[in-house]
Amino acid sequence: MAPTKFPRIALALLALAGVVLTGCSGQPDQYIGKPGAVSAGPGQDAAADVAQFADIGMAADALLAMPVGATCSLESVVSMANGQPSPGETPNSYLARRGSAYRMIGFATNSQSGTVPASVRIVLLGGTAWGIEARTGLERPDVADYFRVPAFSSAGYQADAGFDDVPPGEYRVFVIGTDGSTEVACPSHHRVLVQ
Fold first, then answer.
1. Average per-residue pLDDT in the chain?
2. Mapping DSSP to helix (H, G, I), strand (E, B) and coil, where does residue 158 land?
3. How far is CA 146 from the centre of its chain?
4. What is the pLDDT of residues 36-66, one digit of tens each?
5. Lower Cβ count inside 10 Å, N or C end of the chain?
6. 73/117 Cα distance (integer angstroms)
7. Domain ranges of the chain
8. Which residue from 160, 186, 68, 177 is spatially nearest to 120, judged by alpha carbons?
9. 87-115 burial by CB neighbour count: b if 16+ within 10 A, else e?
10. Which pLDDT belongs to residue 47?
């Protein structure tokens, strides 16, 4: 019986996986919240220290009629009280409680122009649209690499947000990017359940 090459191939694959995982573990995890990375500090009411989502005065049909020419994602919603992610019960969903503060992390690009929006607003869409401005220009080399567009290396956004004024319910998440006077909407395909 001829010796099999399977063990050598398996060992080679395991060695390769070890090298890849070691290389990734040395990079800072600046994109997704990790335990302890976000904290309001002991005794602080985190919700009082952050901007609140506010009614932006836009009807759902007006938002849905906006030009779509962007690629975006809401990748994490992290509790600012304990630094833990706040996932929802279904894939691509998050849970946010009124009276608490969260860090919302993602990226936004204008795929039509190959640029990163100068400003970004995260919008929760239910019967009414609720929005909050997000800090933009955060380093995202992974986005630039994935789309093969070097300009997307600063596509990251982040917003520290409270949901105190948002009525309880489930909301679709959109990202509206602005370059000068042009607004482009992006459905993130994520949802936030406000309780």
1. 80
2. strand
3. 16
4. 344 444 434 456 689 999 999 998 888 888 8
5. N
6. 14
7. 30-194
8. 177
9. ebeeeebbbbbeebbbbbbbbbbbbeeeb
10. 63
Strand partners of residue 110: 70, 115
Note the pLDDT of residue 39: 43
Amino acid present at 24:
C
Provide the CATH topology of domain 30-194. Immunoglobulin-like (2.60.40)
Euclidean distance between the first and final Cα of the chain, in Å?
Answer: 66
Question: How many Å apart are CA 175 and CA 187, to the nearest integer?
Answer: 7
CA–CA dist 96, 80 (Å, integer): 11
DSSP 115: B
Q: How many CB atoms lie within 10 A of CB 182?
A: 14
| Residue 188: C-alpha distances to residues 51, 68, 92, 109, 176 (Å) | 21, 11, 9, 12, 10
pLDDT surpasses 90 at 179:
no
Measure Cα distances from 23 to 32, 66, 127, 148, 151 in Å. 18, 41, 46, 21, 24
* Residue bearing tokens 């002991």: 42
Distance CA 113, CA 72 (A): 14
Give the whole-angstrom CA distance, residue 156 versus residue 36. 21
- Encode pLDDT of 158-177 as tens digits: 999 999 999 999 999 999 99
